Each structure stands twice: as structure tokens, then as C-alpha cells.
Amino acid sequence: MASKDPESEHPSVTLFRQYLRIRTVHPNPDYGTAVAFFEERAHQLGLSFQKVEVTPGYVVPVLTWPGTNPTLSSILLNSHMDVVPVFKEHWSHDPFEAFKDSEGYIYARGTQDMKSVSIQYLEAVRRLKVEGHRFPRTIHMTFVPDEEIGGHKGMELFVQRPEFQALRVGFALDEGLANPTDAFTVFYSERSLWWVRFTSSGRPGHGSRFIEDTAAEKLHKVVSSILAFREKERQRLQSNPHLKEGAVTCVNLTKLEGGVAYNVVPATMSASFDFRLAPDVDLQAFEKQLQSWCQAAGEGVTFEFVQRWMKPRVTPIDDANPWWAAFNRVCKDMNLTLEPEIFPAATDSRYLRAVGIPALGFSPMNRTPVLLHDHDERLHETVFLRGIDIYMRLLSVLASVPALPNEK
Ligand SMILES: CSCC[C@H](NC(C)=O)C(=O)O
Ligand SMILES: [Zn+2]
Ligand SMILES: [Zn+2]
Fold it and tell me: Which Gene3D superfamilies is this protein grouped with (predicted)?
């Protein structure tokens, strides 16, 4: 039970607060201290431990609880170690102090995204071990760097390593989002992230004249086409109560660049967009759409990709998927209402799904406002503790899923 008395704080909450104090914050995350923290936990829990250096200076600690049947594929519990920067002046408490208020809310960067989940995994495994359980399937816990900046020095490299293949992962859990209602959200896919810069070239000249064919006019046209598309998608979402945010495509104009002086018409200008493409979008056709918006804007309008995800994958959420069936059954047994959704942004699950691993994004935080990346990110200790109970039940069932047809 949670307690207001600091003397009798639940040890799992104390461990959570210790981890929150490790400053794994961008742009200079202290991964060394975090990796040492997980190594210490591995020793405390009697788990095997390895460090996989995916690129110089970027280590993935892997903690393993072997199953009783090594021929079966394993369960991967993934979380990322890094957290996004803070605007300290907007916080009610120091974001790296892990302050707990008199009601039991813990304030810190990472309380929701996703240091809570890392500790819930560890504590669920610890308690199951203490209770004397053994399961057929091996459980691995991985703590990856750099998710918040794209996973390019983290999960993207890790899934290509022989050490990762050796884990023989059959199913993975990774991050989700809080849900302010009594329900829990679970993510079975995510939108494809495309960051695109459109550059327009035109005739330069004096700012006092009606110059023909300027870069700005053509950029304006392409921006208008994209914002009109945005509005169409926005209306589609708004007019259909059955559609969730992740099921439509979103785009935002996030950067405008160009110009040197008030009285010089520039020869080039650019506009950058953050596209989030719904999993059912035909990506080749969408690229052609970008080309035709450029052509319609006039000569000299081009685009380049800064990020471009081309492998959208969906983890099936029907009973034909034994992992989903197991996950869903536990939630039913625990009377948890699940809201399956497509993750609106990008997580490391995309790298797992792209190499063929079914993955669900789940951070067990109901009755909690979505505060990831926000000021005063916080989580109530009772919600955190209930998450450990939920993982205990989930792990017991997932790690006992009988041999699949390809495992016999
Ligand atoms: C280039 S990867 C960026 C990853 C980030 N993920 C989240 C969850 O905010 C995003 O979707 O913007
Ligand atoms: Zn995250
Ligand atoms: Zn994040």
C-alpha cells in the first residue's frame, strides 16, 4: 500500500525515486550511472547481466531471467533510459529531485516517460522470483539509450546485433501513454514519421519591386496545399467519433527558413513539416502526392527527407495472436478496461515490429493526465504500485504462453 509517511514509503517507490534522480536527460544523458544502477539491480535480483555496446559509448544493459524451457522464444520488456529536457522555471519542484507531495504525487522528468515502467518491470520480476515462480519462457529486460532522439544510437542498432538475435524474442512490451480515465491504453501500431524539408528557388531582387516567380510565392503554394490536406484530416478525425488520433494522418509546419534582409527578395526559402502517417496510408502514393504538390507550386520547388520511416507494421489484436490473447485475458481477469490504439508519435516499438517481433505499447497509468514531455510530469505512487501488480499478472501469463506452431 502507498503511504504518506516518508518513513514507511514502499520500497518500490523509493527505488523509482532513486532512478528518477539519475540525470539521463538530453542533450548529455548520464547513461553510465543508469547502466551501473541496472547492473546493481541485476545482482540484487540474481539475474544474469550483459552490456551490449551498440556503438562506442552507447550501451544497452540486458537483464535476463531464464525460463524453464529454453527452446521457447522469450518475452522482451523494453524501456528507454533517456528523458527529454525540462524548462525548470515552469516546474513546481526540481524535476530531478523526485519530490513526493503529501498526496503521493511524484514529480520528476521521466515519471511517465518512462522510468516508471523500467522500475515496474524490475519490481514485478523481483516479486515473482521472491514468490518462488518459474515460467517456461525467458524474460529479458532491456534499457535502451537515445529513444527520445530517434533511437539511432539505441534500438535501431540493437535489433541488428547478434546479441539481440541471441535473445530470441517472441513478443515485446514497450512504452505507451497515460490515460486520464479509468481505462488503460494499449498501442498495437504507430504512425510513420516523415520529416520533410521543402525548398523553393526563385528570382531574387530588390524588395521594392514586383519580381516574378519568387521563391516565397511558390513556397506559399506548397505550404497551402499541405495545410489544406492537414485541415481535411483534422475534419475527418473531428467528424468521426470512432476514429482515434493515431488513425488519421497529421502534419504540422514546424520550421520556416530563408531571407537575409528586409529589402532583398531571397533566391531560396524553405518550409519543414512533421508528418505522421497513419498505418493504412500507401507511402509510395503519398510520396507522389508530395511531388505533385511541388509541381503544382511551380518550377524549382523540391523536397528532401530528414527522417523517413517506411516500415509501418501492425501487431494483430485478435485472438489468433496468442500474445494478444494472453495480454487481453489478463486484463479481463483483472477487470481492466483496455483501449487499443495506434500510437500517434514514434517509439522504439517500430524497430521491434520492423524485424518481425509483435509488440504492444503499454504504460499502466490510468486515472492519470498525459504529461509526457510536459512541465510538472508526475505520477501518483498508488498508480505506479498498481502497475507492478499488473505486470506480475501479465508476465506470469505471457511467459507461460504454450509453444507456438513454429516452436514445436
Ligand atoms: C525521430 S524519433 C522522435 C521520437 C518522438 N517520440 C515520442 C514518443 O515523442 C516523436 O515521435 O517525435
Ligand atoms: Zn518514451
Ligand atoms: Zn518521450
Answer: 1.10.150.900, 3.30.70.360, Zn peptidases
